[in-house]
C-alpha cells in the first residue's frame, strides 16, 4: 500500500472552480474603466478614475484678485466712492474729492523663505531698443488695471505653488522696463492694451502706474490730474501664514485704504511733483488686510 500526503480534488469541485474563473473573466470584460484627470494638483482631479484621459482634460487652479476699496478713519470705515468728500487726519480742514484713481498692480507673488508661488501664464511685450523699433520680451502675465469702478475679481492665470506662505508681494504700477513697451502690440482686452480714456498712457511718459484726478472743496472747479509713473513695491506679512490648498482655485481679496496715500500731505497746496514723491513713500501702507477663499 502506498501512502500519499497529497490531496485529491473531487471532479465536481474542479468544475465549480472553472466556472468561477470564467465568471470573473466575463465580469472583467464587461467593466468599463472610468477615464478622468489623475493629477492630484488639478481642480478636476477624479479619485474614482482609473484611466488617464487621452486628451488634456486636467484643469489647474486659477488665481484671481479682488479689491475692496475703502476710506478708513479711526472710528469707522466707508466704501471709497468718487465725488464723496474726504480728509486726512493731518489736515482735517482740507476736504477733497477724487474724480478718478486708476492704477496697475503687477508681479503678484506669495513667498516663504524657500519658495515662491505665482501664476505661470506669460505675455509677449515689445520693448523699444536703440537699434531696432522694438524687441519682443516674454514676461509673467499677471497685470491688473484697478479702479474703484471695477468691482469684479481679476483673473490672473494658472497658479503654481502650495503650502504655507508668509508674505504677499506685488507692485503698484509697472516695472520700469515695461514703461515704454508698445500698447498697440498687446492683444485687445488685456490690461496693457491700448488704453481708452487716456488715464494710463501718455505720449512721452509711457504707461502711467497710477493716475489720480481730484479737486478740493475750496476750489471745486479746479480739477488736478497727477500722472504717477513711479512703481511702488509692496510686501505684506501674512500672520498667520496663508495655507494654499492643492487642487482649488484661489481668490485673494485685498483691502485698500485710499486715504493712507495722502496722510501728512496738504492736497490744497501740494504740487504734482510733491504728490508723487509723497505717494511713493505712503502707497504700500494703504493695503491693510488680505483674505483668501478657495473654490
Protein model, in words:
The strands form 4 sheets. Strands 3, 4, 5, 6, 7, 10, 11, 12, 15, 16, 17, 18 and 19 form a 13-stranded mixed sheet that branches. The chain has a two-stranded parallel ribbon with strand order 1-2. The protein has helices at residues 11-30, 272-282, and strands spanning 35-36, 51-52, 62-73, 76-79, 86-88, 91-112, 115-119, 122-128, 134-140, 144-147, 154-160, 163-172, 201-202, 206-207, 210-216, 224-228, 232-244, 250-257, 287-294. With 295 residues, it is mainly beta. It has one domain (62-294). The chain starts with 10 loop residues before the first helix and ends with a strand. Helices cover 11% and strands 44% of the residues.
Task: Characterize this entry briefly.
This protein is mostly beta strands. 11% of the residues lie in helices and 44% in strands.
Note the overall shape. globular
Uncertain regions spanning at least 5 consecutive residues = 1-11
Helix/strand/pairing class, anyone? mainly beta
Q: How does the major sheet shape up?
A: 13 strands, mixed
- Strand elements, count: 19
